[in-house]
UniProtKB/TrEMBL annotation:
InterPro entries: Acyl_CoA_acyltransferase, GNAT_dom, Trichothecene_AcTrans. This is Acetyltransferase (GNAT) family protein. GO terms for molecular function: acyltransferase activity, transferring groups other than amino-acyl groups. CDD domains: NAT_SF.
Length: 198
């Protein structure tokens, strides 16, 4: 019997529950451990995810959740033309949340920037499943609507991951590795993956 909850578009009412799920999912994620201060890390991480979900995803992108918000995906799309200015507006807050890791966060962004697509894509900005619910197909369930939308408009999908175990998961969804880079200053290895439109 499948334990996959129904998936629906995320709404403003989902922000709190979605952020709690992402906070649990990213608690020990190598990228965020490298780029967000250890002091008050969980609080900082959840505030970071809240900005991304509420200000980027819901206002300028797309997102999907399971009915119980145990799984969340947030995308920017080729129509997300204002995202650059929103990131610029939020940059001081992101730096504040990074705390003493802000120089490492800035360095990481400089290193990965050349590997990101220049053409418009569906960019999977964040996705997470509550750790107690992982392994039940929820991650795929909240990612597939974005892939279907990308296919509908003939756009590629793109993501980055800093967990090697995620690479095979994304390969099963049609993504291929286009680059992998070891971040400097003791940062994690990061894979860049693209999925052509199907």
């Amino acid at each position: 019997m499948s334990s996959v909850s129904p998936v629906r578009p995320a709404t403003r009412a989902d922000v709190g529950a979605a952020v709690r799920t992402l906070g649990r999912a990213f608690a020990d994620y190598p990228w965020t451990r490298h780029t967000i201060a250890a002091d008050g890390h969980q609080r900082r991480l959840e505030a970071f995810q809240e900005l991304f979900v509420a200000r980027i995803g819901l206002e300028h992108g797309r997102g999907w959740v399971t009915d119980d918000c145990a799984a969340v995906s947030v995308w920017t799309t080729p129509d997300s033309t204002e995202v650059g200015s929103v990131f610029a507006e939020l940059a001081p807050r992101f730096a504040e949340l990074a705390g003493d890791r802000a120089p490492f966060a800035e360095e990481a962004e400089r290193v990965v920037s050349p590997y990101r697509p220049q053409e418009p894509v569906w960019f999977l900005g964040t996705v997470g499943v509550d750790p107690e619910r992982q392994g039940n197909g929820l991650g795929s369930a909240v990612i597939r609507p974005g892939l279907a939308e990308a296919d509908r408009v003939g756009a590629a999908a793109f993501l980055e991951t800093s967990l090697e175990g995620n690479v095979r998961f994304y390969q099963r969804l049609g993504f291929v590795v286009t680059a992998d880079v070891r971040l400097p200053s003791g940062g994690p290895r990061t894979w860049f993956m693209t999925r052509p439109p199907h």
